[in-house]
What we know:
The chain has one domain (about 5-195): NAD(P)-binding Rossmann-like Domain (Rossmann fold). About 50% of the residues lie in helices and about 20% in strands. The chain contains six helices and seven strands. The chain has helices spanning about 15-25, 40-50, 65-80, 105-130, 145, 155-175; strands at about 5-10, 30-35, 55-60, 85-90, 135-140, 180-185, 190-195. It has a seven-stranded mixed beta sheet, sandwiched between helices. It is globular, with a radius of gyration of 16 Å. Mean pLDDT is about 90; it is low at about 185-195.
Amino acid sequence: MKLAGKVIIVTGACKGVGRAFALGMAREGASLVILSRAPAELNETARAIKYAGGRVLSFRADISKVDHVKEVVGRAANHYGKIDVLVNNAAVLGSVKPIAEIEEQEWDYVFSVNLRGFFLFSKAVVPYMIRQGGGKIINVVSGFGETGPPILGAYSIAKEGAIHLTRLLAEDLKPHNIKVKGLYHNVLTRRISPY
């Protein structure tokens, strides 16, 4: 098992690509930390991870809220004793409309999840990773961050921010043996590829 002994936080782990990541990592021996705002999805995914042979801590939490993020990371580190990998995957598409028609609340919601959530979780795990001598942060980004259509404006711009955040974190955290990588998620084909 390639991930035996590893502790991995996966945001957005209760459906789609995040759920596939979590289940695959559990099958490889990882101990998982998952979170969602939807209790039913959270419980179902936790059961599936246990069935796949993995250990799991699950939290009802909102990645855009700093107190939620700190609680998840702190409790995960206390329970497992470390955090090896963070997978920033949670994302929302938001409104499908021209940028000039997006309401402020819609814009803020997309950015709070797709960019602020990545920043908050990365910031929260870094001190633990520095103390343990290294770690890995994987940000699931999108090709739409570079070539998104105007009707997905908020999503595309937030994802471009996530791409740039990934690049800057990679440089910033290199001296601490923390590797930061991005994976492109194509929302149309649902394929994942490294960048």
